[in-house]
Design brief:
homodimer; mainly alpha; three-stranded antiparallel beta sheet; 12 strands
Chain lengths: 394, 394
Amino acid sequence: MINNMEFSNLAKLYKNELLNNVLPFWEQYSIDRSYGGYFSCLDREGKVYDTDKFIWLQNRQLWTFSMLYNRLETREKWLQIAKNGADFLAEHGRDSEGNWYFALNRAGKPLVQPYNIFSDCFAAMAFSQYALASGDNEARAIALQAYNNILRRQDNPKGKYSKVYPGTRPMKTLAVPMILANLSLEMDWLLQSDRANAILDRTVAEVMEDFLDAETGLMYENVTPEAEHLDCFEGRLINPGHGIEAMWFIMDIANRRNNRDLINQAVDVVLNILNFGWDKEYGGIYYFMDVKGYPPQQLEWNQKLWWVHLETLVALVMGYRLTGREECWQWYQKVHEYTWKHFADPNYGEWFGYCDRRGEVLLNLKGGKWKGCFHVPRALYLCWQQFEEGEGKR
Amino acid sequence: MINNMEFSNLAKLYKNELLNNVLPFWEQYSIDRSYGGYFSCLDREGKVYDTDKFIWLQNRQLWTFSMLYNRLETREKWLQIAKNGADFLAEHGRDSEGNWYFALNRAGKPLVQPYNIFSDCFAAMAFSQYALASGDNEARAIALQAYNNILRRQDNPKGKYSKVYPGTRPMKTLAVPMILANLSLEMDWLLQSDRANAILDRTVAEVMEDFLDAETGLMYENVTPEAEHLDCFEGRLINPGHGIEAMWFIMDIANRRNNRDLINQAVDVVLNILNFGWDKEYGGIYYFMDVKGYPPQQLEWNQKLWWVHLETLVALVMGYRLTGREECWQWYQKVHEYTWKHFADPNYGEWFGYCDRRGEVLLNLKGGKWKGCFHVPRALYLCWQQFEEGEGKR
C-alpha cells in the first residue's frame, strides 16, 4: 500500500520535471520571434531542424501555455507565449471557410489543406483556453467557430479528401467521439451546459457501448455504424495508447458526475488493454496491434512512443486515486519505471519521443511533425495534481 | 575476380529459389478460386489472414505470371493464373471513367478510390504483359487506356485527393518519371516507337538531371519543378531502395541504347547510395533517410525491407555484368550475404518482407497490403538471367 510520503515525493518529481526541465525547453527554443507561432522540430538539445508549422502542434502548444496560465499560475511570460501562437494562428491558420489547415510554412502560408477535422479540434481546445486566459473575445469566437465546424463535419471528418468508396464498408472511428468528449469538457465554460451535457452523454455511450468490445474488454479503433466488428486491417486494429487515453477522459467525466460504476468500468478497460498491449519480452506498450494477432499494417507497430506511456501514467494514477484498486498501483509502478527510464532525458530538457521495441532511442529529437509541447507537459501536470490531491485525501 | 563457375552456381541458386520455393508458394496459396483475383495477405506458411484485394498487388501478380509465361516458359498453368487475375481486374478494377481503384473487397466491390496514378501504372504493366501472353485484344485495350490515363494525370497524380495547397511549395516526385521510364520499356511492343522513345528521353533526362544531385551523387525523392532542393521533410528525403531501383531501370534503357556513359553514371549513383544508406552497425540498407542527417518523419526509417535489398542485388549484378567494375562485385557479395540470410525462409516458400534494424523478422508474413508476388520473383528472375548471360560472356 502506498503512503502519503510516496505520493508527496511523486508530486514533487512531476512538478520539478514540468517546471524545471520541460517548460524551459519550449520557452527557450520553440518561440518564433520573427514570424510568430512556434517551432516544433527541435533536436535533442533544442536546435531547430525544420521550420514548417504543423497546426495540431501549434494549437497544442497554445493550449498548454494557456492551460498552465489558467490552472497553475498567472505567469505573464506564459500568456505572452500563448499570444505569440494565438496571433499567428488567428491570422494564418484557417481557410476562407474557417476550416483549419494541416500545415503552414514558417511565414504562415498554407502547405497542406484542411483535410480532416482534427486540426479544428485542437484549435477549439487551444482558443478556448486562450480566451479564458486572455479574455480576448476574438479568441472566444474562434473557439466556438472551430467547435461548430467539428459538429458539422463529424460524420464525414475528411470530407472531399476521403479516399473511402462510399457504401462498401461503412465504418466509424473512435477518435471522433473521444475527442468530442474531451472537447466538450474543455469548453464547458463556453457552451450552454445542456448542450455540452447532451454531447457528453452521447459520446460516452458511443465509446463505452460501440467501441468497447464486451468479450475481450478491449477498445477497438474502428467498428461499423451499428457497432459490429469488421474483419479487415482497420477493423482488427487496437491502439493501446489511444484506448487508454480515452479511458482517462471517461474517468474525468465520470468523476465530475460522480458515476462510480463508469469509473470502475474505465479502469477495467485500462487494465485489459495493458494486459494485452504490454511487451512481455522488452517491456513497454506496443503502438499498434491486431486483435487477432495477425501482422498489423503499421510497420511501426512494436515501437514504444512517449505519449502512449505518459497517457497511461495519467490513466493509472487517476484510476488509483479514484478507486484505490491495487492493480492500478502495481501497473503504475511498472509503467512509471519504464517511462522515466526510456523517455526522460537527464542531460537536456523535454523527453524523447520514439524508442524502438527494445527501448533504444529511434529518433534523436524532442519535437517533430507529430511531437510538440503537449503530451509531456500535460501528463506531468496531471500526474502532479493527482498525486497532490491523493496525498491530501489518504 | 569472379569466374564462370561462380556465376553458374549463382544462376542455379536464383533459378532454384524462383522455381522451387517462391512460385509454388503463390501458385498454391494465393489463388482465389471463388471470386477470382489473388489473396496477397498470406502468413509465413501461406494461410490467408485477410481477403481484401489491393490493386497494386493484384496487377503485380498478374504481371509476374504473364512475364514468366512470355519470357521464361509458356506453361499453361501460369497463363491460367494470369487469366484468373486479369478477368477479375477487368471486371472490377476500374471506376466508370477507367481509373483504377486502390482496393477492393474479396468479391470485387470498391473500397478505396483511385486516389493516385500508381494503380494505373501497375495495371498498364500487367495488362500489357498479359495481352502479349494471351493475345487478348481487350487486355491490350485496357493496357493502353491505363497508359494514357497516366500520361494525362502525370502532372497531378493525386488529382482531387491531393492535400497539397497549390502554389506555396511546388514539388515534383521521382516516382513519376521513374515509373514512366520503366513502363515505356515494358510497353514498347504496344506503343509507336517514336512516342515511346520521346518519353524515354524525357524521363531519363529528368531522373539524371533533376533528381540526381550533382554534389552528393545521391538521388532525391522530391525537388522543385525547376530541380532545386527544398529544405523540408519531403525535400530532404532519400529512399535508398527507390533510388537504386531507378538506377537499374536507367541501366536497362542505357544498355538497349548502348550508352556506356549513362550505364557508368547509373552505377556511380548506386555505389553512392549504398555508401550513404548502408547501416554500418547492423548491416543492411536503411528504408528512409534525411540527407542532412535530421530525424526523418517515417518511423520505419531504419527497418530493412525485402524489396530494397532485392532491387539492389539486381542493380549490382546488372552493373557488374555491364561494366565489370570491381566495386559492384564487392558490394554484390556484401548485399547478397545480408539479403539471403535475413529475407529467405529456409522452412517455407516466399521470403520475409520486413526486418527491424537488427535484421530480426518484424512482421511474420509473406504477403500483405504492400508485399505480394512481385519483387521477390522479379529480382530472382533478373539475377538468374544476368548471371546466365554473364557466364556466357566471360
